[in-house]
Amino acid sequence: MADMDISGETATVSADSLASLRLSVTTPWHPSIQRPFAGSFVQAGTRAVAARFARTELFHTEDWTTPAQPLAARLVRRDRTRLAGRVRERGGFAPRLSEDGYWVTDIPTPVTPGQHYADWALDHEAALGQVLGGAGFAADVVHGHVGIYGGWLALRFAPRGARVVVTEHASFLGRILAQPRSRAMYGQVLDRADAVICVSGLLRTKLAEAFPAHAGKIVVVPNAVDIESMPVRPVPVADLHRWIYVGKIAAPKGVPELVEAFAIAARGEPKLSLTVLGSGPLTGALRERAAQLGVAGRVEFLDPVEPEKVFGILHEHDLLVHPSKGETFGMTTVEAVGAGMPVLVTRCGGPQETLDGLDGLAGSLIEVSDDPMVIVDGYRGLAARVGRLDLEYARAELVRRFGSASVAERLSDIYLGRTGAAAMAATALGEERR
Amino acid sequence: MSVLLLAIGTTRSRAVCGYGRFLADRGVDVSLITSSAAPWAAEGLEERITVLPVETAIDRRLLAAGPVAKFYRLVRPYALWRSARRRVVGRLDWSTVEQVVVCDSHAIPIAWHVARKHPDLTVGFELDRTPFLDHPASSPDLAPTEQVSAA
């Protein structure tokens, strides 16, 4: 892509509606045969707006990890370039029409472990550039997900005059900004972007502090969540005996503290059980720990299932416990409340924003802590006032905040550039609450 | 008619197993060239799929340290291609192979060499399901991400 200029121009889309425009979305995460659960928020956001455009295409640059050894990685990369050229010549990399009404091109992207985000972004650029065959996106609006990946690709491949929107929802933003080269690339992305969307106020603050000159174009718009179509728990919760955790089984998610907390809470309550639904590096260790704590028979570990099956499993439980140490948004929590489940969730970033004003109605918010007693106390407090939950109201409120129609309206305004910085800020979740 | 899958490791095992199940359910012969057969049963690979291991003697001895291992890691992609050529590629009946699908990055050098050797063969990064969609499936319950539409 050496012949493609990096344009610092601010684009204007001269249209009153999106109906005649083409949207290109670029993302490192999207559901695929290998990762059916990845990037569901990108999928939901794209689905929400796809029908408003004349054509919507999504380019999914998916990490394919190469050997770590640099020379071996170079061999793989070289042969990938050769093979991709052959595939493209023969009509490969053809987009498929997803069930959500937009076109998807999956692009295998060799990335070498141990490198910087800047290097990985360049890997993504090389892979996408090959598929596009030296051209840019055929689009009027380009939406890149995650600044250093999709944002960088939007910068490199958006045609002059196209409006560039970047959504940041990476939990690793801090690590990106700590790497000088990656940070410099991020700055270029912000130079080119017409609007930058953060999915939480926490992320917006972090990004605006790092790039104060661009603070005016950074707004908060939450992830779209298709709450309207989620099945609601058929029977209202009467007690909180059956706990469930859904997500990665890893230390940053607080799962070790959850198992400890469950063992403490379960001592005096024989009806308590815990289901851990997911996979991750601590699965084996936590099985063993549950056995050591004498609760192996009351803690069940379930492998991940297709997203549509999660709700059925949720409804067989009484309480979603989400003890994460940090979330930019906290999709699991929002989905659980959308499905009519009470939640016990840490104030780990996203959840205190997504559930703002709903503490006590949708469940309970607890502090982030390494002390399992925080979870135990949170559970006992919530169990004592379970009758005061108002999950119907909480769900309706979340539909208003994050429902597909609501988020699609905000995105459409941003895509059309209808709103200036001040007006855009007024649409921000954080501003609404003040 | 057959399909050859290439996956040296199991980092993308869900894709490999998904492709394998889709094809096997439709009566298509499927083979998998991989480093070692050992981990695939645990990954859920269909028994109907023929596994063709190409691990080298050095892989089998698990040389994890020392100068030989260090050098070997540099050239492993090439060494695996040489092993695949000697043990599998030269013995396959290529007249029946309809598609070769490379499923992880470590297998890309093998895929490239196969593509060069067989210029008319379809070699891609994902399974083109189109030729098999009219085959009756024994378990038609596919996840949305496993479905396909023509462009």
Molecular structure report:
The complex is a heterodimer of chains A (434) and B (151). Chain A has 434 residues and is of the alpha/beta class. Chain A has helices spanning 40-50, 70-89, 117-132, 146-157, 173-177, 180-192, 201-210, 255-266, 283-292, 307-314, 331-338, 350-354, 372-384, 391-402, 404-416, 421-426, 429-433, and strands at 22-27, 55-65, 96-97, 103-111, 141-145, 163-168, 195-198, 218-220, 242-246, 273-277, 299-302, 319-322, 343-346, 363-366. Chain A has 2 domains: 18-220, 3-Layer(aba) Sandwich (Rossmann fold), CATH 3.40.50; 228-399, 3-Layer(aba) Sandwich (Rossmann fold). The longest helix of chain A is centred in the N-terminal third of the chain and has 20 residues, at 70-89. Chain A is globular and about 65 Å long. Chain B has a single domain, classed as Glycogen Phosphorylase B (Rossmann fold). Chain B is globular. With 151 residues, chain B is of the alpha/beta class. Chain B has a 5-stranded parallel beta sheet, with helices on both faces. The chains are: A alpha/beta (434), B alpha/beta (151). The interface between A and B is large, with 36 and 35 residues.
Topology:
The complex is a heterodimer of chains A (434) and B (151).
Chain A: E1 22-27, H1 40-50, E2 55-65, H2 70-89, E3 96-97, E4 103-111, H3 117-132, E5 141-145, H4 146-157, E6 163-168, H5 173-177, H6 180-192, E7 195-198, H7 201-210, E8 218-220, E9 242-246, H8 255-266, E10 273-277, H9 283-292, E11 299-302, H10 307-314, E12 319-322, H11 331-338, E13 343-346, H12 350-354, E14 363-366, H13 372-384, H14 391-402, H15 404-416, H16 421-426, H17 429-433
Parallel strand pairs in A: 1-2, 1-5, 2-4, 5-6, 6-7, 7-8, 9-10, 9-12, 10-11, 12-13, 13-14
Antiparallel strand pairs in A: 3-4
Chain B: E1 2-6, H1 13-25, E2 29-34, H2 40-43, E3 50-53, H3 57-61, H4 66-89, E4 97-102, H5 108-117, E5 122-124
Parallel strand pairs in B: 1-2, 1-4, 2-3, 4-5
Helix pairs in contact in B: 4-5
